[in-house]
């Protein structure tokens, strides 16, 4: 792993190879168009409800949040909502939280720390819940597209939009999420070097362990990229983030991220970050919980952002 990912040129070649596995993607041309649908202040947060043109196929509703009255360029956290079968929620999670995430919701917690926050509705979720995940997955395959690839593409284009804003510091961008949102965090950071800090929650376990335990069947259609296992392990995707700061929070009783899949990730990342002289920038922390974030995990996530962002 060290030889493949310590060299920046080899790392970029692997990044390009991973991006190439994401199916037929739209062209990434110019800045995404954006329209403000509504602006309000609620609970000390300035909330912009946006409609973004990220993929040329369907509009993408989003929230942009920042502390009320904040001036200048702010560090940005791209918040990736979870799945949980809550197709009607999507981006609302950033303001209303989820049963497996403690209060306050991350939109409130992050703006209280002084960050701006961007959260989009992904395919099949929130206001984009017009077809089932199964329908979208099948239709995309017919067109040579991969649902996960299109979701990652939307996230990258959302950053294209965000860095064009005068209230965002393009040099201080982090990404964070839980479950599906956590998977999006480490994939997005792997593929987009503009992400400076990554926090994933209950999402990063080796694919071989998912196969061994059958835990892969607990992940829905969005999760599966054709041919991925022949070219990349989960550790290989994660390695593309190095040497940028990366915190991975895991539950020791999480059936969706089997504990036996945590050790190989940690070993590989420790070796890689050590070889890059950045050992302190990788942390994997485990907690005696299932597929959920507890208060201690939340404190670790915020402390990590505070330190590195």
Describe this structure in words.
The chain has 309 residues and is of the alpha/beta class. It has helices at 2-5, 8-20, 93-96, 106-112, 133-142, 147-162, 180-191, 207-213, 234-239, 262-275, 295-308; strands spanning 33-42, 45-53, 60-67, 74-80, 116-120, 168-178, 197-201, 246-251, 282-287. It has eleven helices and nine strands. The chain has a nine-stranded mixed beta sheet, sandwiched between helices. Helix 6 crosses helix 7 (180-191). The longest helix has 16 residues, at 147-162. The two termini are 27 Å apart. 45% of the residues are buried. The model has no long low-confidence stretch (mean pLDDT 97).
Keywords:
single chain, 309 residues, alpha/beta, nine-stranded mixed sheet, globular
């Amino acid at each position: 792993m060290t030889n493949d990912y310590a060299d920046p040129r080899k790392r970029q070649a692997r990044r390009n190879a991973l991006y190439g596995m994401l199916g037929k993607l739209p062209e990434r041309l110019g800045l995404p168009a954006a329209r403000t649908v509504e602006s309000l202040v609620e609970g000390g947060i300035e909330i912009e409800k946006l409609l973004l043109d990220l993929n040329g196929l369907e509009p993408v509703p989003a929230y942009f949040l920042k502390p009320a009255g904040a001036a200048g360029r702010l560090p940005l956290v791209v918040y990736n909502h979870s799945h949980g079968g809550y197709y009607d929620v999507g981006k609302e999670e950033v303001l209303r939280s989820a049963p497996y995430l403690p209060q306050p919701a991350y939109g409130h917690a992050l703006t209280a720390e002084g960050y701006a926050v961007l959260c989009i509705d992904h395919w099949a979720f929130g206001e984009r819940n017009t077809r089932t995940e199964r329908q979208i997955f099948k239709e995309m395959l017919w067109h040579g597209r991969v649902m996960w690839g299109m979701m990652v593409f939307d996230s990258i284009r959302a950053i294209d939009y965000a860095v064009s804003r005068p209230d965002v510091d393009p040099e201080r961008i982090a990404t964070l999420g839980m479950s599906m949102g956590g998977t999006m965090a480490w994939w997005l950071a792997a593929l987009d070097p503009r992400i400076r800090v990554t926090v994933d929650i209950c999402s990063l376990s080796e694919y071989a362990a998912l196969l061994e335990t059958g835990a892969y069947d607990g992940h829905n259609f969005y999760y599966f990229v054709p041919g991925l296992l022949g070219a990349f392990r989960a550790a290989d995707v994660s390695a593309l983030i190095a040497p940028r700061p990366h915190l991975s929070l895991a539950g020791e009783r999480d059936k969706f991220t089997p504990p036996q899949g945590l050790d190989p990730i940690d070993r590989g990342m420790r070796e890689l970050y050590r070889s890059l002289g950045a050992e302190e920038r990788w942390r994997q922390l485990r907690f005696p919980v299932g597929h959920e974030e507890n208060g201690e995990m939340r404190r670790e996530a915020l402390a990590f952002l505070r330190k590195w962002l």
